[in-house]
Amino acid sequence: MAELFEHIPVLGAEVLEFLTFPADRPARLIDGTLGGGGHSAMLLRRYPQLALLGIDRDEAALAKAAETLAFASGRTRFVRGNYSELAGIAAENGWKKVDGILLDIGVSSPQIDRPERGFSWRAEGPLDMRMDRRSELTASRLLNTAAERELERIFREYGEVAKSRKLAAAVVRARQEKPFAVTSDLVALCDGVLGRSRPGQLPAPTLVFQALRIAVNDELGELERALPAATELLNREGRLAVISFHSLEDRIVKNFFRDEAASCSCPPGLPVCICGKIPALRVVTRKAVTAGPEELEKNRRSAPAKLRVAEKII
């Protein structure tokens, strides 16, 4: 299984630039979305005093990471779980505070490229899309059981599908005759309802599959729960680095960092501050960091990636 999980770490040089650790003492890193271990491998090689707690909900990813990080076996621990649970996982491993946390949000290339995972509309496979295959909710189950209004919301909010209401109604009609089971079932429906995309636009099935994947894995909820937990875990001067691939994810990170770095949360219009808020973070990246031309040429999937970094100041 592990040999099928090959992954090119996105924004690797930028992660090394912004996620730094003290050289004069042992340090701890949590990689909450370990994947194949690419980012963590770079950090562990650069910092011999660094220990890693790697978390991922995909068993194939953890198996690959164990191979990739074998050179640092005495400094690594691996846990299968959701990164939103990182506070509890850290406590279970005796880690009260850490010096850095990395979250690389979204689906990985190995998951996309394996037809049996069902993440891509370009290959025939089951409508699965689970990052954690212990979960009961699959894309096919969601399509076959969710209310029409909920499907419309998923397509509109998570995929920004232009004809989301029309597509949701078509899904409900189609599943009464034949339940959705494989990727081609949904692709055929998308082609019939949404038609071909205009030049320069993403193919409609890409947006629909993206929306379902986000819903199946509760990706936005995971992120919203993880950010405050990660901030609490950081030592003073520890850094939280988040790589996102979707505008909704990036907005959540941007707004969280902004709010935690603000010195006042009073309602607008008050003549003086009465909240007494103390900022918890300092935003390190004034704007999102994106891939440069060289990386884009080597890895086209890095194009939507955005890195934001903040530092704990209390």
TrEMBL record:
Keywords (A to Z) from UniProt: Cytoplasm, Methyltransferase, rRNA processing, S-adenosyl-L-methionine, Transferase
Binding site for S-adenosyl-L-methionine: G37, G38, H39, D56, Y83, D104, Q111
GO biological process: rRNA base methylation
SUPFAM superfamilies per UniProt: Putative methyltransferase TM0872, insert domain, S-adenosyl-L-methionine-dependent methyltransferases
GO molecular function: rRNA (cytosine-N4-)-methyltransferase activity
EC class of the enzyme, as a word: transferase
GO cellular component term, pick one: cytoplasm
Role noted for this protein: Specifically methylates the N4 position of cytidine in position 1402 (C1402) of 16S rRNA.
Pfam family, one: Methyltransf_5
Protein family (similarity comment): Belongs to the methyltransferase superfamily. RsmH family.
Protein name: Ribosomal RNA small subunit methyltransferase H
